[in-house]
Design brief:
This protein has helices spanning 2-13, 16-42, 54-73, 79-84, 87-112, 117-124, 126-139, 145-164, 180-202, 208-231, 242-267, 272-294, 300-326, 335-346, and strands at residues 170-173, 176-179. It is mainly alpha-helical. A two-stranded antiparallel ribbon has the order 1-2. A hairpin with a 2-residue loop joins β1 (170-173) and β2 (176-179). The chain starts with a helix and ends with a helix.
Length: 348
């Protein structure tokens, strides 16, 4: 007991920025780790089939995440709480679950097999830009000059990356050549931004545990059905492979458990400026992780797009610091916003 108490006291004394930093590094590495695990599975094929396919990683990874979420949020599923939800609440949950829990992750995982991590990271930055636009349009949110300028420059970086740095299969869009992987990432980003706004508009009265667990369950079921319809029942032939589950336990322990717990621990005392800075630094950390884990060297187009993105990040940071000075009393995010940011960081 004494040892446990000392460990607990030590964890409490750890500064919030340190927890956030660890979470950012883990979430930034998530896509690269996924790609690396899939490559390991290719070298250990069973009957010519990769047991750690991208679909298996998403399916089994969601099951592991569901186990964690159930342990954390089971109290939210009390009968009285469930009875308080209206039909509109369940419809909103279903829409959000299908969009952000099934379709968007499936597109990202498909893109992982067709383009490199750096492209996915850079083009994925269209999501917060679209969320900002939709927030102004639908929610009446106010946006200052710095945030607007940063969003526009970041969008320019996304466009440069998409049209000059495409890889894999190509498609023609408005006379330009762009890879299908990049298109899938862009569609996933659009879906993610819509799901975020829908969550803010219609899910205010729904407990966080119900929101996350229902989305996870629905997304996993919908993805399993779609994968079977598109690829056939044999697509999950090795889903029960011990080799797959061994790696998924490690994956869940690092990405899901450690990452999200560090993020949630950091949220307790973090200021809004620290959280915004974490959001801005995440894509840069993801690009660095892709280089360290996979050896991906950025192309000229990615350097150009990344440079514009970095300028946008700096402008956004300046805006955050300026806003922090105006609002001397910083307001922490709601639990739902915090979890949305955590899930967004995790990416897979």
């Amino acid at each position: 007991m004494k040892v446990a108490n000392k460990v607990h006291e030590f964890l409490i004394r750890v500064p919030s920025p340190m927890y956030l930093g660890i979470a950012i590094l883990i979430f930034a590495a998530s896509n690269s780790i996924t790609r690396k695990i899939v490559e390991i599975g290719q070298n250990h094929a069973i009957n010519g089939i990769n047991p750690i396919s991208l679909c298996n990683v998403l399916f089994v990874g969601n099951i592991c995440a569901l186990g964690l979420m159930t342990l954390i949020f089971y109290k939210d599923w009390a009968p009285n709480t469930l009875k308080a939800l209206t039909r509109k609440d369940w419809i909103s949950l279903t829409i959000t679950g299908i969009l952000s829990g099934a379709i968007a992750p499936a597109l990202i995982f498909t893109a992982l097999g067709q383009t490199n991590i750096t492209n996915i990271v850079l083009i994925g930055r269209i999501e917060p830009i679209l969320t900002l636009v939709l927030g102004v349009w639908l929610l009446g949110s106010r946006v200052d000059f710095w945030a607007s300028a940063g969003a526009l420059i970041s969008l320019a970086g996304v466009i440069v990356t998409a049209f000059l740095g495409s890889s894999g299969q190509m498609m023609t869009v408005a006379g330009f050549q762009i890879g299908t992987g990049e298109i899938f990432v862009a569609i996933a980003a659009i879906i993610g931004s819509i799901a975020t706004v829908v969550g803010k508009l219609q899910l205010q009265s729904i407990p966080l545990g119900i929101f996350t667990i229902y989305r996870n369950i629905l997304g996993t079921v919908i993805f399993f059905i779609l994968a079977n319809l598109l690829y056939g029942p044999n697509h999950f032939a090795e889903v029960l492979s011990p080799f797959l589950w061994q790696w998924m336990i490690v994956y869940a322990a690092i990405i899901v458990v450690t990452g999200q717990l560090c993020w949630l621990a950091g949220l307790k005392n973090a200021t809004s400026t620290e959280l915004n800075l974490a959001s801005l630094l995440n894509p840069i950390a993801a690009i660095i992780m892709a280089y360290l884990i996979l050896g991906e060297t950025p192309t000229l187009a990615q350097y150009l797009g990344g440079s514009l993105l970095f300028v946008g990040v700096i402008l956004g940071l300046v805006g955050n610091l300026y806003q922090a000075k105006i609002n001397r009393e910083l307001v922490k995010p709601s639990p739902r916003d915090a979890m949305e940011m955590a899930i967004g960081f995790r990416g897979v």
